[in-house]
Amino acid sequence: MADIPKHEDAFEDVLVQVQHNLSQLKYNIGKINVGEKGATLDIKVLDNAICRTQHSIRRHADDYLKSVNKQQLVLPAIEDLQKQTLKLHKWKPSIESLPDVYSQRKTFDVVFHERKVKPEAVESLAVAKAKGKRVQYLPEDELQPVIKPNLLRMSAQHNVMSLQPRLELHFSKKELDFKPDKESKCQMDSETRLGRKVGESEHLVTSSPSLPTQITVSDIMDQMEIQDTTSFVTKETEDQSADVHISTFTIVKGQIDPMTKDFICFKEKFSWCWSSVVDVLEDLTKLLREFAVPLAKVDGEHLIQICPSSDYGWRKTLSKANLFSLLENKGDVLELVSRPGQRYRGEGGRDVAATRIQACWRRYFNRTSYLCYHRRKKAAEVISLSWLLHYQRCQVKKALQEKRFRQLENYRNRAEHLAANWKHIRSSKRTIIHIPSLGFSQSWRQNTRKYDILQNIQITRLCDIRDENVEVIYICPMRLGEDILQYYDNFLRRNGADSSTSQDLPCNKRFLILTPEAVDHFPTRNMCLSTLLKYSPCTLKQIKRQIRGKQAYIVGGVGHEDDLEVADELDVPVLGPEPAVSQLHGTKSGGRRIFSEAGLEVPPGQGDVYALNQLHETLAELIAQNIHIQRWLFKINMQRGGRDTAYCDVCHLRCYSWALQRYQHFGPDLWHAVWVQETVMLKYLEEIPEWLIYYTQLSESSRFQSWSEFLKIFLRQGGVVEAYPPSENVTHVTVDMLLEPSGEVTIQSWGDQLHGYCHLDIVGSIIPKTSVHLETLHSICMRVAYVCQQNCIMGYVSVGLATFVDHSTMKQKVRLKKIWGIDLDIGFSDQLAMTQMVLMATGGTLDWHTGCFEVPMPVKEKCSEQEALAKHLVDSRYAVIGIHLFHSNLSMLYHSMFFKMCKFNCIEFNKKENQGTVFALYDSSERCTIGMIAVSEDLQGALVTFAQNLSVIHQEILSSKKEEETNFEVLC
Fold it and tell me: Where along the chain is composition biased (Basic and acidic residues) (predicted)?
């Protein structure tokens, strides 16, 4: 390695010359256009060959530099340190007195001319001092500056500088021979500039670099003079201010011309950090080529400021925003770059465009596939979930069906046992479980106000204990106050029965009132009483405890499926038909079928109407066939007691007078021909829709507010269209029968109905009946009972009849009285419940054979009981029963105050005379609805008493400040 320094200049010159020639060749190749004989020059192949040559030269240069850097550098000895060294200090120029730039430049040149020391050598010495090494001064020939031609691809130099203390390569004088004069002059001028700052270290200037003595950098720095240092720093600062334009160079079409003056000057000025600059310039030129930028001006000062630096040689890539910020014309460049598709016009644009298209297509394809998969997955989830729910529903439905079927089989088995032992049960001690449940449909129940009060109207079933062999357990659908409990307790005790409302039922107590605990959990659901009892296990257990070891059966209301479950839970029979049979034949349409099978005349009409067109066509046909009927009724199948009835009069039809003329023209005989009625029916069809909308009236007790609401429920649940009796005097009769399981029929009560204002609302009845002959009524009831038994109907049945005089027979001087069957209700009726209270209060009986209401006559003389029975001391009475008496002002009075008011006005019952007034209380909260019974010796007296009582009560509770709602005035 001793001979390496001898050939250092020769090797360096050859190396630099080869690199420069390769760079020049690469730059000039791009300008060659080969077009001879259609031949094409493959520039890429030549460029690859040049690059391989450059890499090979770099590798050899790297080996050479490693060998050089490992040698110890020896500086010549310095004889006079005080004269030959300068000590630099940090200089802070004064703003008031700046030195003359021209004189400093001149002095600066003279110093370097005399000492022949280059700025690169000064920086090298400063770096060597910072590293703590001893260095030797190089010969004068080795200190001459050399221009490095390979500016952008000096990877070997970059690696050496990043890993070893930087020793700058210098340009030899031979390399300057091929440069133009202007470039040589610029290069010589740049040699006189000095502006290096390595970190915060101090600058060193030597006066005798050829001294053989070896010294340290610290010794030299201590010997330097302050005046020369100040002059050097001042000249350097001013020189940088004057040559700012040297830091700017141009990039054309993404290529840097290394032969341009501005780039050579920039490279010479910042050669101390060129390794970092090269990386940034490579990224910048690549970016400009990618976006096909034709011209870009680079701000060198800003480039030096943001150049990334690393102590370990790792390359830090700048972002695009930082690279574009290096340009002086970045506004124009950014405007060009931001144009759509500009990236695809630059270097590799076709590949990028193809990649972009492929990426977009793959994204679209994958997104479409994913969405399709997602939809299918969601659909599969929905289908699987729906199928699972459907399967579970089917399983639950199947289990419920099996449970219902098992309950129905148990019901039938218990019904057979009840029928076989009915005579024994009827004559022995038994317990009757009264459940006054109204098992209507859910929509009907939800649209009914005060549903719990409607179910509790039959609280007078407690009066069944008038039979000494009967004990009653009454299931109440609401919580009763102490006032009502005390009232019924006193009423039953006064008439010879013991009572209890406690949980236990001793042997001497004969009735018990229980309220299911589910009433508190479902206060607004309007659930039927059987359902509430089903969800009340404590009440069921209490009932089981009371009936253990006793003969018991259930008497329900309107049939419901939960009746079977309650009966199955209590293991007792039900005195009534199956719920399905009750729902089939207990409707208005089912009643018409029963009456038709029994041979009983029914009003002209049509049942099972479920469609609006069917309603219009039925009405047109019925009106045309029955020209003398003035009023047509619309009844919902599930209604009871005349509630929820609408009517419409045909006199409002515009074509009715024309139809009457047609009827008189053809006569009664030809009128029933189809071809005669066809034109009238078509005329009716045109007017009936409007006629129904504007002229239909609702009953007073209807729960609907308009015809549209009524029609909606009417078509949903089905209904009946039938004629109202064509007479001014119409009497309605209600007969309650018990179809015993053994097949016998017992008539429990009968009476004429008491109607309200519109003759459709049933508010009460008169006992006994007076409008129909007893034998005729008995015959009708037996025929209806027989048909009911044929249709598996058992238990309590209520038959509604209408009697009137047919005016069409008046011309024949024969008064023919007609009886129409209009209602058939399956279940315990409100009239029968109130009749039980009348019989309990008076101690009387209804004699079916005589048709009289008989009560024991009070015995005035002292005689034995046997003598009284032998004389048959009985007397007849008449009773007027008001079941649904409503007055809104009744809620202002508590029941105790109400009875005091009645007693003050002599409204009370005389037990000795068996006449007077008895009240039935239904609820403790609202207290707006009551029942009243007026008993008298004759019918006229009973009606007068009933009317006077209502008038007195109305006057007592009348308020001028509050508008009341009542039906008292209609009955007064």
Answer: 182-203
